[in-house]
Design a protein that fits this description.
single chain, alpha/beta, Rossmann fold, 4 domains, ten-stranded mixed sheet, 23 helices, 19 strands, 13% strand, Solute carrier family 12 member 6, transmembrane
Length: 714
């Protein structure tokens, strides 16, 4: 080789490697025949030209010189040292000095080298042609890896011990006339290497052209990627012709780049992602103890898979972080496309196994202690009534549950079919599908459960007791109002309702009874009215007893949904004439301020004659009212807690029509035992024609059922 100082020169005959004024190098660096030494390029003027042996042999000791790294950046000169005077062009002409054509680093070299060892999956791609794939693939793959690794690594060490540092970094052999270094070493002739390299490259290309099209055709036949369906067609001889044509076109695009070094890192990314996902799948299946995961390779351990995954990710980002992010982004897009558009196959996936394990872990964590009041939210159990056609009678209950949940928390829809399960199992499946369809149409996120019982009352009781799992059990029951109970001759219409109320109370669950559910708004509607070009909508809360905040929480949750978002919240509380209404209103406003709830407060003063004896006895005694006011003052700066409440009424005013919807919550008071009193001050009579609802107060009636006395006011 001809070396100028520390720099390597190209396209120079060894006999011309001198600084004679008549020589070609002097004329090149100095500008012509009549030039003087002072006119020459500064580096040429201050350094000597020498002839260096490029291939020195193992006994030369050049191995120690090649141990250190000599990475350079694009456009720098190939030189023995990293002195800036030797490697930097300094805005001078390059002449015939050898330049670095690509920025080099250890990670770049990994990306360039890695495609040469990507035949690990070759056996798997041909598993259909093997007599005993599960025996041949592990043995063949391991032997191939050991063989190629030995050859590659020994070649690297031998080159480092025989070839000069400058010649090793001359990628295209420009300093020795464009020849391959290994061809100069070959025995007996350089054509051995040239022909061998050509055949090796051709073999690797044919291997890819035979394996890749079949793999592409198999993916297309499975239908997991719909837009690949045209490539599932085979020729008359069973060859994947269309997939082969696509593979050739992809290869040609890579060749047209003109520099394989730019393509190699990107190819390495996809191979590394493939190997990484294989390792991840093996490790996840082992940790989840999937029953159908039974590897026969006795030396396998899940830690090896995680080690392989870690190395794949590390090499990806070491090679090129932006290529790594690009490859991950493309893989994520393909995965989401398959998830939404791809066909479902029988082999399943590891993501579902992870979800099951995560659900189990979360349920066990929820069992460690009772939920904090700050994390409390209504987990709703919808008790749906079915028509003879096994469809929900009141679809608006699903819409109301969706509005109340705003897509969060647990929702379970339950229904009861009277009869024997062995005879009604088909009806139960049909009812479950109908309820699931209704929940999907109303955009309710949750689960469906249909129970077959000998009677409706027992079935509802079983649903209340057994619905949910662990810490994800419902804490709120949504129950329909028994319309037409006064006109019905069948006493079951109100007995089922009252017994369900008892069961919910015994289970210490909140009970929501939407009255006039058919007048509730759909999830696609917005509740407001126009008064003098002003949008007005109100949610009225009649706050009778300080319950811990459930009545405040319900309208707040409703306002999270777009249907009720523009409504204003109004709080009405009842006071006797002798109460301090001004102070009561002031304390209630301060209470709402600390709860960070915006609402208007109104205090309604009533005389004793306007209040029934039951309500007076249960909620409006002066001592209890004063106690409530004291609690408000004491709890101004405390967090809101939710607890069992006695009696509450929530009134919605969704439209300017005289429709009034009542939502009542009832539960047993501690210490009442089996005797419970249930009282409602409102009644809804459905009129044919205009559909208006009139609220009337009636006389109390005593109803005896199962030796439990209930005071029920229609």
């Amino acid at each position: 080789m001809c070396v100028l100082g520390q720099r390597l020169l190209k396209d120079v005959d060894i006999t011309d490697c001198h600084d004679d004024p008549n020589g070609p190098l002097f004329q090149l660096f100095c500008g012509g025949n009549n030039s003087q030494i002072e006119d020459c390029e500064p580096y040429f003027r201050t350094n000597n030209l020498t002839v260096v042996q490029g291939i020195k042999g193992l006994a030369s000791g050049v191995f120690l010189d090649n141990i250190q790294n000599s990475f350079l950046e694009l456009g720098q000169f190939i030189a023995r040292t990293k002195d800036p005077d030797d490697i930097e062009p300094l805005d001078r002409p390059n002449y015939n000095q050898v330049l670095v054509d690509i920025t080099t680093s250890f990670t770049i070299l990994i990306g360039i080298f890695f495609p040469s060892v990507t035949g690990i999956m070759a056996g798997s791609n041909r598993s259909g042609d093997l007599a005993d794939a599960q025996k041949s693939i592990p043995v063949g793959t391991i032997c191939a890896i050991l063989t190629t690794s030995t050859v590659y690594l020994s070649t690297v060490l031998l080159f480092a011990g025989t070839v000069d540092n400058l010649l090793l970094r001359d990628k295209f052999g420009q300093s020795i006339g464009g020849k391959l270094v290994v061809a100069n070493i070959a025995w007996p002739n350089q054509w051995v290497i040239l022909i061998g390299s050509f055949l090796s490259t051709l073999g690797a290309g044919l291997q890819s052209l035979t394996g890749a099209p079949r793999l592409l055709q198999a993916i297309a036949k499975d239908g997991i990627i719909p837009f690949l369906a045209p490539f599932a067609v085979s020729s008359r001889r069973g060859e994947p012709t269309r997939a082969l044509v696509l593979t050739v076109l992809i290869c040609q695009c890579g060749i047209l780049l003109g520099n394989v070094d730019y393509l190699a890192p990107l190819l390495s990314m996809f191979f590394l992602m493939c190997y990484g996902f294989v390792n991840l799948a093996c490790a996840v299946q082992t940790l989840l103890r999937t029953p159908n995961w039974r590897p026969r390779f006795k030396y396998y351990h899940w830690s090896l898979s995680f080690l392989g995954l870690s190395l794949c990710i590390a090499v990806m980002f070491m090679t090129s972080w932006y290529y790594a992010l690009l490859a991950m982004g493309m893989a994520g897009c393909i995965y989401k496309y398959i998830e939404y558009r791809g066909a479902e196959k029988e082999w399943g996936d590891g993501i579902r196994g992870l979800a099951l394990s995560a659900a189990r872990y979360s349920l066990l964590r929820l069992e460690e202690g009772p939920p904090h009041t700050k994390n409390w939210r209504p987990q709703i159990l919808i008790l749906s009534k079915l028509t003879p056609d096994l469809v929900p009678k009141y679809r608006k209950m699903f819409a109301f549950a969706a509005q109340l949940k705003a897509g969060k928390g647990l929702t379970v829809c339950g229904a009861v079919i009277p009869g024997d399960f062995t005879r009604c199992s088909g009806e139960a499946m049909a009812a479950k599908q109908s309820l699931r369809r209704t929940m999907d149409e109303e955009k309710v996120k949750g689960f469906v459960d249909v129970l077959v019982a000998r009677n409706i009352t027992d079935g509802l009781n079983h649903l209340i007791q057994t619905s949910g799992l662990g810490g994800m059990k419902p804490n709120t029951v949504l129950l329909g109002w028994p319309y037409g109970w006064r006109q019905s001759e069948d006493e079951k219409t109100w007995q089922v309702f009252l017994q369900t109320v008892r069961n919910v109370s015994a289970a210490r669950m909140a009970l929501l009874v939407p009255k006039g559910i058919n007048f509730f708004p759909d999830s696609s509607e917005k509740v407001f009215t126009r008064v003098l070009d002003t949008v007005v909508g109100n949610i009225d809360v009649w706050w009778i007893v300080h319950d811990g905040g459930l009545l405040m929480l319900l309208p707040f949750l409703l306002k999270q949904h777009r249907t009720w978002k523009n409504c204003k919240m109004r709080i009405f509380t009842v006071a006797q004439m002798e109460d301090n209404s001004i102070q009561m209103k002031k304390d209630l406003k301060m209470f709402l301020y600390h709860l960070r709830i915006e609402a208007e407060v109104e205090v309604v003063e009533m005389v004793d004659s306007d209040i029934s004896a039951y309500t007076y006895e249960r909620t409006l005694m002066m001592e209890q009212r004063n106690q409530m006011l004291r609690e408000l003052r004491l709890n101004k700066k405390e967090s809101l807690g939710v607890k069992i409440f006695e009696y509450e009424i929530l009134s919605f005013s969704p439209s300017p029509s005289p429709t009034i919807v009542i939502l009542a919550s009832l539960s047993l008071k501690e210490g009442d035992g089996d005797d419970s009193s249930i009282h409602s001050e409102t009644q809804q009579d459905e009129k044919s024609g205009d559909g208006n609802i009139q609220e009337t107060l009636g006389q109390e009636e005593d109803l005896d059922a199962d030796d439990n006395k209930l005071a029920f006011t229609p």
